[in-house]
Design a protein that fits this description.
- The chain is built from 15 helices and 16 strands.
- The protein has helices at about 15-30, 45-50, 60-65, 90-95, 145-165, 180-195, 200-210, 225-230, 240-255, 300, 315-325, 345-360, 375-380, 395-400, 415-425, and strands spanning about 35, 45, 65-70, 80-85, 105-115, 130-135, 170-175, 260, 275-280, 290-295, 310-315, 335-340, 365, 385-390, 400-405, 410-415.
- The strands form three sheets. It has an eight-stranded mixed β-sheet, sandwiched between helices. Strands 13-12-14-15-16 form a five-stranded mixed β-sheet, sandwiched between helices. A three-stranded antiparallel β-sheet has the order 2-4-3.
- Helix 5 (about 145-165) packs parallel to helix 9.
- It starts with 14 loop residues before the first helix and ends in a 7-residue tail after the last helix.
- The model has no long low-confidence stretch (mean pLDDT about 95).
- The structure holds histidyl-adenosine monophosphate (HAM).
């Protein structure tokens, strides 16, 4: 039997109800914060990711789905292509390619869609997973560099998690400084690693040479005591970076957004500068990061774009849904009405009635005249219907329908003209 590929999965009803509910709430929130949707391609030139996410990162060295796209015509060039492992690089590429910077304003862009990483699959970690993300990017003259952006994004995230109903999240915050701070920190790491690096895993031995910061991403248990002893980035921030971080924290304090400082959190992508953050949730086990993000002030320039500082985040939607489910948010399949034709020739009348109800905004399933009444009731209950509407010969003749509330057992006769209003009274608050 053919099965879904390892690390990919089908999302089925009723789970998809929860996904849609979360996405609807998030879109509503983005609109209130004046974000607009961007959709970029699912695959891009491989170089986009190696140049932005970073050559030495786990994502680029081990996890990308990359292939050589052979030229089919003389006019086409063969090209290395990659399924997007994340979406910040694609958004910044689009920002540059379409000259969005020319408006001189901030662009607040959000996206919802699949990303691809060849990681070892486990609960909360998939090879195709979904992110809900956003980026604020623009020229410094529009305020893109201001700590107010960082605080605004973090406040929005706290509200977002609250509005979708996720409780007990922890915001972990850090600053990884600017490019110069990082250069000094990398130098300090290199020195500190010299005497111990041979005791570390082969990946760390390589990273210690090429990009020592990435040693901090190592997951090998034996390496952790060494990593614990390494210098921390906080001591290497210059004065402007220190002030920027203090301003972000002061605004969060004033807005009442709780956080804790985690100086070990440097994030697994190279483009970050200054503020970095993650929100974690206890119900997720080993993959506890529901979302991650940070500032990336030099990314646009590194992709040959203008000076356009930015900050953004991506929520792992799979993990957000898992965390909600760990709080017992089990979606149910429901439909407002089950329209049950009763007796030969009743299908035509039932279809007409179902059409009227659906056009009036009522969700409805339609049975079949071949079903006996008992079977119609069974199917209505299985479908999660709130009401069953019987369409028999008498009902059709006098244009009044027997309606039974399957929850309470109450049964009434409702005239056709009032039927949609009657069924709509008990709309499921979650739908
Ligand atoms: P990231 O930390 O690599 O950041 O991913 C963000 C979130 O995506 C993670 O916190 C996690 O919830 C989810 N995620 C990552 N990998 C997987 C996976 N294999 N399976 C399930 N969920 C996963 C980024 O992607 C940055 N682009 C975020 C950002 C936007 N930074 C600035 N702007």
């Amino acid at each position: 039997m053919l099965k879904a590929v390892r690390g990919t999965r089908d999302l089925l009803p009723p789970d998809t109800e929860l996904w849609n509910r979360v996405e609807a709430k998030v879109r509503n929130l983005f609109a209130r914060y004046n974000y607009h949707e961007i959709r970029t391609p699912l695959f891009e030139d491989t170089q986009l990711f190696s140049r932005s996410v970073g050559e030495e990162t786990d994502i680029v060295t081990k996890e990308m789905f990359t292939w050589e796209d052979r030229a089919r015509a003389q006019s086409e060039k063969a090209q290395s292509l990659t399924l997007r492992p994340e979406n910040t690089a694609g958004v910044v590429r689009a920002y540059i390619e379409h000259g969005l910077y020319k408006t001189g304003t901030l662009h607040k862009l959000y996206y919802i869609g699949p990303q691809f990483r060849r990681e070892r699959p486990q609960k909360g970690r998939y090879r195709q997973f979904y992110q809900i993300g956003a980026e604020i990017i623009g020229p410094p003259s529009a305020g893109s560099e201001s700590p107010a952006r960082d605080a605004e994004v973090l406040e929005m995230l706290a509200s977002l998690l609250d509005e979708v109903g996720l409780r007990d999240c922890q915001l972990q915050l850090n600053s990884v400084g600017c490019a110069e701070d990082r250069a000094r920190y990398n130098q300090a790491l290199r020195e500190a690693l010299k005497p111990v690096v041979l005791q570390m895993c082969p990946d760390c031995q390589r990273r210690a040479e090429t990009n020592p910061l990435r040693v901090l991403d190592c997951k090998v248990p034996e390496d952790q005591p060494i990593i614990e002893q390494l210098p921390k980035i906080g001591a290497f921030l210059d004065e402007p970076c220190r002030e920027h971080f203090a301003a972000v924290r002061a605004m969060l304090d004033a807005a009442g957004v709780p956080y804790s400082i985690n100086e070990r959190m440097v994030r697994g992508l190279d483009y970050y500068t200054r503020t970095t953050f993650e929100f974690t949730h206890g119900g997720l086990g080993a993959q506890s990061a529901v979302l991650g993000g940070g500032r990336y002030d030099g990314l646009s320039e590194s992709l040959e774009g203008p000076n356009a500082p930015g900050i953004g985040f991506a929520i792992g939607e799979d993990r957000l849904i898992l965390a909600l489910q760990s709080q017992n948010e089990q979606p149910k399949e429901t439909v407002q009405a089950y329209v049950a034709p009763l007796g030969a020739g009743m299908n035509v009348h039932a279809l007409k009635l179902a059409r009227e109800l659906r056009r009036a905004g009522i969700s409805a399933d339609l049975g079949d005249e071949l079903f006996r009444l008992k079977k119609s009731f069974e199917l209505a209950e299985k479908a999660g219907a709130q009401y069953i509407v019987i369409v028999g010969e008498n009902e059709t003749a006098c244009d009044r329908f027997a309606v039974k509330n399957l929850g309470s057992g109450e049964q009434v006769d409702v005239p056709r003209a009032g039927l949609a209003a009657y069924l709509g009274r008990h709309r499921d608050p979650n739908s």
